[in-house]
Structures are given as structure tokens and as C-alpha cells.
């Protein structure tokens, strides 16, 4: 099921969510402007290459203009194609504004970037010798989903199921939709540990451990940063 919207109103203008979407779109437009060879070089430089990250953690100098640890952040704004970008931004558009509403602008940005970094490290842990670049906002967005399912489990999600020429719509609670999504990511993550399985990042596929890890860390960091507080820290600062 592809989500279309939720029935969860907000009380703020989600500037950070809008800004993140804009940053991802602009980064993709820049990627699209590069010829194939230059694009490959750029992605290898700005995306997370697990083998290189492993080397940097071991103290081995790689002599690259972008420190390998920094790719845990830069990789969050890169995408491998229009469908990859569109799917991620759809989820961010639907679910990000409510988490920004509860955390406040600054803490939400900190939360988002932190979830992306921790999601990248989750994927790295299971693929430390891989030479395949890992990129995309889905790890950070998975953190948003992990916070959302805790804070708004009963929120109604409207989605559509593409069935050829038919597109039936369904309404389901967030805990069902997002819970199923997490179980799916965790299942494929475990399956990707088996060498014969033709899924997962090792075969140039999806970084399922980044999704599962981001979701878990989002569920942890959200409450720590005030997900269940009635007023965001931003509101408190504005009143001083």
C-alpha cells in the first residue's frame, strides 16, 4: 500500500520538513546534471562506502576531500533515481510534519540527521567490507516513522494499492501500516545476511538494515527529545 496522506493535523508550518525535501530535490537535480562517469565519482565520494568507513574507523587515511565519517550525513541527501527520491519524499511529506510539530524545528532537525547517521551505521555494521555506496534519505525517514508509530499509533493513514488498472484505497491505523513496514524491513534485513539471497545492499539493492535501524533509533530518540511533551522546546524559546 502506498500512503497518500494521514488525518493528523498540525499546529505549525513545518519549515524544516519543507527544507529537507527541497534539499533532497536540489541534490538530485545536481546529480542528474552530471555525466555518468562524473556521477559515479561523486556518489563514491559523497555516499557511504562501508569498506572505506571501516578503514577510516581503523585510523587509515584515505586522502579524500570529504572525510568518510561525513558521508554519513551527505549520503542522506543523495538518491539513486527518481522513483527512489519520490518514494522517500512522499513518506517525509506525510509523516515528517507531525514529528516536527511535536519536537520543534531545531530538535526535529537534530533528530532527523541523527537518525540518518545511526541508520547508516546500522547498515555499515552488517556490511563492513562492502564497496557498494549506500545512499538515500530512507534511514533518516525510517527514524521519523519509528517516532510516529509511538506518538500517533491510532492516526488514520489513507493509502492506495496499485492493482494493474485498479487503484483501490484503504484506511488503516498507523500502527498497522508502519508496523508492517518495519517487520518487512527487518525480515529482508535478516534474509540479506544469507549469501545466496539476491536481496540487500551487497547485490546493489536496498539497505534494509538502515531502514530497520533508523526505525528503532527513531523510536528511542523521539521520546528522549520530547516527543510526548505538550510544548516543543522551540515554543519555550520563542516566549523568553
From TrEMBL:
<dbReference type="GO" id="GO:0008233">
    <property type="term" value="F:peptidase activity"/>
</dbReference>
<feature type="transmembrane region" description="Helical">
    <location>
        <begin position="77"/>
        <end position="96"/>
    </location>
</feature>
<dbReference type="InterPro" id="IPR035952">
    <property type="entry name" value="Rhomboid-like_sf"/>
</dbReference>
<protein>
    <submittedName>
        <fullName>Rhomboid family intramembrane serine protease</fullName>
    </submittedName>
</protein>
<feature type="transmembrane region" description="Helical">
    <location>
        <begin position="108"/>
        <end position="126"/>
    </location>
</feature>
<keyword id="KW-0645">Protease</keyword>
<dbReference type="InterPro" id="IPR050925">
    <property type="entry name" value="Rhomboid_protease_S54"/>
</dbReference>
<keyword id="KW-1133">Transmembrane helix</keyword>
<dbReference type="GO" id="GO:0006508">
    <property type="term" value="P:proteolysis"/>
</dbReference>
<keyword id="KW-0812">Transmembrane</keyword>
<keyword id="KW-0378">Hydrolase</keyword>
<feature type="transmembrane region" description="Helical">
    <location>
        <begin position="132"/>
        <end position="150"/>
    </location>
</feature>
<keyword id="KW-0472">Membrane</keyword>
<dbReference type="Pfam" id="PF01694">
    <property type="entry name" value="Rhomboid"/>
</dbReference>
<dbReference type="InterPro" id="IPR022764">
    <property type="entry name" value="Peptidase_S54_rhomboid_dom"/>
</dbReference>
<feature type="transmembrane region" description="Helical">
    <location>
        <begin position="12"/>
        <end position="30"/>
    </location>
</feature>
<comment type="similarity">
    <text>Belongs to the peptidase S54 family.</text>
</comment>
<feature type="domain" description="Peptidase S54 rhomboid">
    <location>
        <begin position="68"/>
        <end position="225"/>
    </location>
</feature>
<feature type="transmembrane region" description="Helical">
    <location>
        <begin position="206"/>
        <end position="228"/>
    </location>
</feature>
<feature type="transmembrane region" description="Helical">
    <location>
        <begin position="157"/>
        <end position="183"/>
    </location>
</feature>
